[in-house]
């Protein structure tokens, strides 16, 4: 998937070195003194405009709390490198108080033994914990043992449809009442080999784009990604039924554009060559720039279940063995993720708001004017009930099932055999971590 926030430019070497040196060393304050001078190290995982916004917010927090200094930096030359740098910091006791982290890292971070635990605090009304989506809350509680931070970014897959393509076919636009049968029927009618127009598009690159598009089909059919014992569960009857549905669309109906690149399908949609795609808020800016006439609604449903998949990322909190640092780290993130600040952070940057209470704000409504459909996507967070696993072996699991899905959609295999083979590979990846 493509997101706007986690794109990072290389920070200056001196800044990076300073950020590392201002991290934890053992032997900090053991009794809380909220008036004591304290420095909080914050690795944002951002660059350019996003980093500038956060730096401004950090300065504002410092003005509100003169005893607090926020040592803010990108943290690494790429988001992916943050995990490696954090691991090295755990070994040398030079890790930050706060770091942007992909949600898939959450279990690994918790297993480090370095994270804070917010379980005893989130019932405080000042946290507004219930305003975060279920998927976002689940991502920061990866094992159920601890709550290791705050949601940083939320998104979801929604159904985006091309009005020009629908109008040309004489079809009514999708609604929130649609079933997957409605979806399949429309995709067939939208497909026109003469003009090389397709009803739908699906990634067959085998990447996480391939995989996470599949999870709503699995969940809506009653399936799960993992069993209670941590082994792969997707090769179930529900998984086979879900993949067979997509196989029929791709192979029998030939109504799906099979994208090897993860990027071309969005370009073709913008050029009125694809009728529907399931994607997220990161697509809307490009569609508006291209002048594409589009609409947005929730995913089609199974027996009224319109469950979607979300990809929350998090602000991970780390215990630096200094109670003053720990206290102010939590206070900083409570403040940052409050509606007043999130409107100037995620919403201003064109992402979905973290909290449901922001949807009716003038600031978000201004974004709705600029990016039509983003309000539907924000409301669709209510359908983000389950989260993708945050276990360390998820990358291997994703690669295994992504490859299986890609082959089946290209007519190279049976869904049951493909998923069972993928489950074996996934279990190997899971057992290695």
TrEMBL record:
It comes from the Bacteria. PROSITE patterns: PROKAR_LIPOPROTEIN. InterPro entries: Bact_solute-bd_prot1 (IPR050490), SBP (IPR006059). Transmembrane segments: none annotated. Keywords: Signal. Residues 412-433 are annotated as: Disordered. Residues 1-19 form the signal peptide. The keyword Signal applies. This is ABC transporter substrate-binding protein. It comes from Homoserinibacter gongjuensis.
């Amino acid at each position: 998937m493509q997101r706007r926030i986690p794109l990072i430019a290389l920070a200056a070497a001196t800044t990076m070195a300073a950020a590392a040196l201002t991290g934890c060393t053992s032997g900090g304050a053991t009794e809380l003194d909220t008036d004591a001078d304290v420095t909080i190290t914050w690795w944002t995982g951002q660059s350019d405009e996003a980093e500038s916004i956060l730096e401004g917010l950090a300065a504002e927090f410092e003005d509100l709390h003169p005893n607090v200094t926020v040592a803010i930096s990108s943290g690494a030359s790429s988001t992916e490198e943050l995990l490696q740098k954090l691991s090295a910091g755990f070994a040398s006791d030079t890790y930050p108080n706060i770091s942007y982290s992909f949600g898939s890292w959450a279990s690994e971070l918790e297993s480090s033994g370095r994270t804070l635990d917010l379980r005893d605090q989130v019932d405080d009304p000042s946290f507004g914990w219930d305003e975060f989506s279920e998927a976002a809350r689940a991502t920061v509680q990866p094992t159920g043992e601890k709550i290791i931070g705050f949601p940083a970014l939320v998104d979801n897959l929604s159904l985006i449809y091309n009005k020009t393509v629908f109008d040309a076919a004489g079809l009514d636009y999708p609604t929130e009442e649609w079933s997957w049968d409605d979806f399949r029927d429309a995709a067939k009618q939208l497909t026109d080999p003469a003009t090389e127009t397709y009803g739908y598009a699906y990634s067959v690159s085998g990447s996480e784009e391939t995989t996470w598009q599949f999870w709503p089909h699995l969940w809506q059919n009653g399936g799960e990604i993992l069993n209670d014992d941590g082994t792969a569960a997707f090769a179930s009857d529900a998984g086979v039924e879900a993949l067979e549905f997509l196989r029929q669309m791709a192979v029998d109906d030939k109504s799906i554009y099979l994208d090897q690149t993860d990027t071309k399908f969005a370009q073709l949609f913008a050029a009125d060559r694809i009728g529907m795609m399931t994607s997220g808020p990161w697509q809307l800016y490009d569609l508006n720039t291209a002048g594409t006439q589009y609409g947005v609604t929730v995913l089609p449903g199974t027996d009224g279940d319109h469950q979607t998949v979300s990809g929350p990322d998090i602000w991970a909190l780390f215990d630096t063995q200094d109670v003053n640092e720990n206290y102010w780290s939590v206070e900083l993130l409570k403040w940052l993720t409050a509606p007043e600040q999130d409107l100037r952070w995620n919403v201003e940057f064109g992402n979905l708001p973290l909290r449901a209470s922001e949807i009716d704000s003038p600031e978000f409504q201004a974004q709705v004017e600029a990016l039509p459909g983003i309000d539907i996507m924000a409301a669709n967070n209510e359908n983000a009930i389950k989260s993708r696993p945050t276990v360390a072996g998820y990358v291997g699991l994703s690669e295994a099932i992504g490859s299986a899905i890609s082959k089946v959609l290209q007519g190279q295999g049976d869904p049951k055999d493909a998923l069972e083979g993928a489950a074996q590979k996934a279990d190997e990846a899971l057992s290695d971590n």
